[in-house]
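Bench notes, afternoon.
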Amino acid sequence: MEDFLYQDGVGKREVAPPSLCRGPCRILDFYMAKVLQGPFLLTHMRKEAVRLNLDGVTNVLPYRDYYRGRNGLVAKYLARYLDLPYLDEMGRGMNEYVVPPVAITKEAAESLGIRTEADFYGGAVEHMGHISKAILHPSISSSKPSFYSDIFAKSVEGLVLPGVTAFSKQDLLDNYDRLAGQFPLMRLKFTNKSDGHGQFQVSSKEMLATTLDEVSDEEVASDGLVIEPDLEHKSTISFGRVIVGTDTFYFLAKQKNDFAPEDSRDRYLGADVLIVRHDVRKLFETRLTISEQRSLGVGSEFLERYSYFDPICSRLSFDCLTGYDKLDRMFCGVTDITARLGGTCPALSLAIIEFKKNRDLSFARVEVNLNYDPLVEKDVEIGATAFIDLPSLRLTARINFIL
């Protein structure tokens, strides 16, 4: 196996052992282990259809229509890539390629016929805590839930923002002075929130105590809380991997954000995405900004470390945040894990069709955009494919450049 090299001193030289292999090699290992079972092999490998799954999605409109529109069209592109018919969420058949709306447990995956990355688009983990922010940092609590791993937290030190995880409110309050010495301005995060929700700037012990009143002791004990430095002049670049059929894709996605008018949180507006096939080193060979290089180095090494939890993920990405604290120190590290059909997937689904058309394609630049005022068409929506087109939201994606 060839070495993976990381540039600019962000990561170190690593050799991924066979146990960390993902993609086609993992799938091949699984099928070879089943070869003596005869008919099972052929039945499992040949899917009958791609099925949209909306289990767990709210029935409240228009939110359910968001999922049905975006996820449904992504599933249709996946069906096209796999040369399979598409079926919507009504009913359930046998031996289908499943497109669930959220990350699921391995137990739930088994009930859907999911055993490897070849069976679905998304992520399955042993415990849902394995995709939460809680696993990213060393814990200052002596009592920790079973999903948390001190070993993993230690292994990703230097790949994440500096910070701590706590499973008790009192532990955070007791350690406030020490944390304030490290982080003049802190950000408190609820570990299972996304899109800027559940995050609070903290500048005093009193402010921390007031914020902690918003969450129950039971929730903190089961899910945890995270403290990280509050950063300015920040940008988020996601690194991810997608496996569809026997093909593996790697991507970098520079997020577009603004401030939500209702609560001033960072709101997702889309992303500019660079995607390559099979070899992550192709991303390193493209022209990247310094922030993109750092995020790529950090994200690709984090992907190796994340195999510690043995996830089954055909779609997996890590948000890398770059910014400066109040002391003008620059930080770059993973802050979030996504193992589901997410915001970049409309653009990714368009890109993989281009790769299917041209097996010699090196890379594709694509983008996805969210318009929260659909009555006004934006320039970036011209010539784009609409994945959601409702009075409250329009989501579009388009191919910008292929080579």
